[in-house]
Amino acid sequence: MRKSILLAAGLLFSISSQAQLLNIIKSTVKTKTGVDLDNPAKPKTPAETTTTSTTTTATPTKTSPINLGSLTSTQISSGLKEALSLGVTDGVKKLALTDGFLKNEAVKILMPEKLRKIDTTLRSLGMGSLADEGVKLLNRAAEDAVTEAAPIFTKAITSMTITDAKNILLSSDNAATNYLQTKTQSQLFTAFQPKVKASLGKVGADTVWKNLISKYNTFTGQAVTTDLNEYVTTETINGVFKMVAEKESGIRNTPAMRTTSILQKVFGAQDGK
Q1: Residue 126: which region, alpha, beta or left (left: phi > 0; alpha: psi -120 to 50)?
Q2: How far is the C-alpha of 140 from the C-alpha of 245, rounded, in Å?
Q3: What is the average per-residue pLDDT within 218-245?
């Protein structure tokens, strides 16, 4: 009996020693190689993760090519205003030509939305030519009035304080135009509306539209009215802004369009030059 107990105790001691030895081996392997023998697929240890992260952080990254350090806020503001002024000058010149609005799908003035049912009705009655004449004369009025837009826009640009010029320069292709529109739309409308009213009368648009609406009301028994002056004024101003935005985008992306030293300096810095 005693012999059996001794044998059992010896066996247990042997197993315990083996277990301890095995644990020591596992611990040594894990310390030296990072491999966990109990779980070979276990994710990397924190030490490994830290090492990898450090290595990744140290990898050189591409730096931004934009360097505005040599430019003052005043210079940037002047460059943006120069781009806007050129956009207005070029835009007005193109829009003031015959068909400058009518044949340019980006700015063409369409039938007012609330009156488009008039267009459909007149065409169904064989009066499509009258509807076409109405649209044409809206555009003719815009083409005539826009010649007066340049000094109004220029005054708005020169009196505008661009406090966040650097952010505008580094923003989207038409950021300066959007800024101008936000800051000056109301004053531009007020100053430009009398010009449009005069042009509507000059090209005969007001008379044609009175006739057009009168015929529609007669045939339908309705009493449709609209403020053409307000509509054409808004559409003409929006047309100028579209042309200015196009010019701004060109100056930002095409060095050859930077025709003055301030444009080259400011937008060249944007390119990292």
Answers
A1: left
A2: 22
A3: 90
The DSSP string of 194-228 is: HHHHHHHHHTTHHHHHHHHHHHHHHHH-------H
Tracing tokens 């010019």 back to the chain, one arrives at: 247
R_g of the chain, CA atoms, integer Å: 38
Tokens of 27: 């611990």
User: Which two structure tokens, joined as six digits, stand for 254?
Assistant: 């095409």
Q: Is the pLDDT of residue 10 over 50?
A: no
> What per-residue confidence (pLDDT) applies to 130?
85
The Cα 50–Cα 153 span in angstroms is 59
Contacts 24+ apart (CB under 8 A), 216-224: 216/118, 216/121, 216/122, 219/121, 219/125, 220/121, 224/114, 224/115, 224/118
The confidence band for 140, taking pLDDT boundaries of 50, 70 and 90, is very high
Q: How far apart are CA 21 and CA 26, in angstroms?
A: 9
- What's the rounded Cα separation, in Å, for the pair 48 and 40? 15
Of 198, 88, 43, nearest to 34 by C-alpha is 43
Q: How far is CA 181 from CA 56, 94, 106, 123, 143, in A?
A: 45, 20, 17, 37, 20
Q: Provide the CA 1 distance to its chain's centre, in angstroms.
A: 94
Which pLDDT score, from 0 to 100, does residue 191 have? 95
Cβ–Cβ under 8 Å, residues 111 and 224: no
What mean pLDDT do residues 240-244 have? 97
pTM of the model: 0.72
Which tokens go with 138? Answer: 């809206």
Contact 248, 174 (CB under 8 A): yes
Residues 157-205 have pLDDT tens digits of 998 888 889 899 998 899 999 999 999 999 999 999 999 999 999 999 9
